[in-house]
Amino acid sequence: MTMDQQFVTVEGRAIPIEGERNLLEIIRKAGIELPTFCYHSELSVYGACRLCLVEVAGRGVQGACSTPPEPGLDIKVNTPQLREIRKIAVELLLANHDLSCPSCFKSVDCKLMDVARRVGVTSVRFKPVQEKAPLDFSSPSIIRDPNKCVLCGDCVRMCSEIQGIGAIGFAHRGHQTAVLPAFGKGLGEGECVGCGQCANVCPTGALVPRSEMDEVLTALADPTKTVVAQVAPAVRVGLGECFASPAGDPVMGRMVAALKRLGFDAVYDTTFAADLTVIEEGQEFLTRAAAGEKLPQFTSCCPGWVQFAEQSFPELLPNLSSCRSPQQMFGSLVKEMLPEKQGIARKDLIVVSIMPCTAKKFEARRPEFAVDGSPDVDFVLTTQELARMIDGAGLRFNSLEPESLDMPFGFGTGAGVIFGASGGVTEAVLRFAAEKITGKPLASVDFAEVRGDSGLREATLEVGGKTLRLAIVHGLANARAVAEQVVAGNSEYDLIEVMACPGGCIGGAGQPVPKDLADRKRRTKDLYQCDKTFPLHKAQDNMFVTECYDKFLGDVGGHKAHSLLHTHYQSRRRVSDETLVLLSGDPAQTKVRVRVCLGTSCHLRGAQDILTGMLKHIVENGLENAVDVRASFCFEQCAKGPTVEMDGEVMTHCTLESVLAALDAHLRNPLPQPTKPSAGCGCGCGK
Questions:
Q1: What is the rounded CA–CA span in Å between residue 666 and residue 651?
Q2: Is the CB of residue 429 less than 8 Å from the CB of residue 413?
Q3: Greatest CA separation found in the chain?
Q4: 545 backbone dihedrals φ, ψ, rounded to 5°
Q5: How many Cα atoms within 13 Å fall on the side-chain side of residue 408?
Q6: Which residues are registered as beta bridge partners of 289?
Q7: Which pLDDT value is given to residue 262?
Q8: SS3 (DSSP) at 433
Q9: Total-model pTM
Q10: Residues with catalytic roles
């Protein structure tokens, strides 16, 4: 320590200030773990839970998370007053909390249960003031239980700040305050893409991944079914954490042993399908680049990103790779090859995916990934669900002898393994494309330029005399910024990789909840270490993939390969209902009909201000009976918002001034109302 170093005093100990943003970080550096619900270093400071309160000499009680450190501060963290405040805060939360703790999915790592124990809550002195609310099962990826919400706001900030979607937010006031999707609808009826990052930060069981364990156990117990598993690359560096192994510790061999003990007939590696993806997507990229069409090419491995693009940027869908994700490539290929090989019907082959991702549950249900109603992937289990199944079967995971994956779909290269980390898909494609461009073997397979942990990374590479401009993005808020650049024509990228979850698949919501950001970094490091230990590092060197093309698929990108390994995308409305009535006066009077889009893209461009200003103008000028105003949710003009429809005319790039001018013009010359059918036959024909 230098003589001029600045300090604060925490419980009598001098703690140096070394760039910490708030007192909470200083106190944790002092070895004191203050309880919090609403503090996450990646999110904005919210200060809602009031658990990290401290006493600062001369200033009284302060929130540690929202108070910056200053030299000379004298801080107490465990006075009788503070202990009582924390205890009361937790009791108030418990008073309205659904205490079905033994059956709660979050019971093994519930923050509320942990904090209640730490602050010494043994009884609750307050009565509940809220009625029990129904559970939300509308999403195939996430279950929302409002009865377990503690209003910490973590999910709201994660969805808004990191994912840039805002599918969930605060509603109502006082004791009726709740966290809800837009307009009180279900998660599956709005803009949620199922990434599950809200569940990843939720401290209780208010948001949890939707489980398919019971369905899988039923299939395993059915002697007429052949049940096979595919395991995603990121799972091998996540599952061990559920059994007290260090973060990132690869446990593939023990996982295979556990799956076979659970009753799976075969265990394969999704890395095999990731190698297929590299070859198909790499060839697709080279074809596009040669023609100079549909660039930049976006990757399509992440279902959260794909759904986000379908919802918010339908004009970019031609730029997405037509390749299915590795999960869906695997399901399609295995359901086509194994039934004939094993002499069973397609309906009797059950494919179960073990994934780090909750959005994969939605992806598996997409109708385009089914044949005559039979899905290519039947069920998706997250890493957490698999851990529960292993534990429930009484298997001592850490004592299991490692077993081998089954061939041929159990063999993959290091290129497929690094798919689990942000930048891995890009690097894997580069390992393929570089050799195709130069016609020479790579001297080194590492492309360190695309590695890192920032949410947006750029790289420019010279390959065989060609310049490749790349972008690697994780977090959908970052993806939105890049997509808007592309739509505006301000992008010169050739290839853009997008992953919805922070850090890529290693940070998926189905993984064990990381204790800190270092856990994600360790998972990434160990994935790259797995790449080093694999015998092969390029997808084109996978002899089983080559054999699959030679004997079954035919040419890369050919008719059969395209049928089984590629797909298409479609524009999707974000909210199921057409409109929400905001102002509608005398029904007998001719009206100007106005619809204002409040979808995310338009909202971010100021649609809410336009709507508020227009309603104020209407009321102030006594026009309530002359105008019918409704909120709408998409005109499929996301890049041109704010968007307003007035008497059937769609206006884009709107401002409040332009909307009011148009409204005044329409009020002077309103369109005639549709005539009512006269009484008669009753069919509405007017006769």
A1: 13
A2: no
A3: 96
A4: -65, -45
A5: 17
A6: none
A7: 97
A8: helix
A9: 0.81
A10: 281, 284, 301, 321, 360, 363, 368, 505
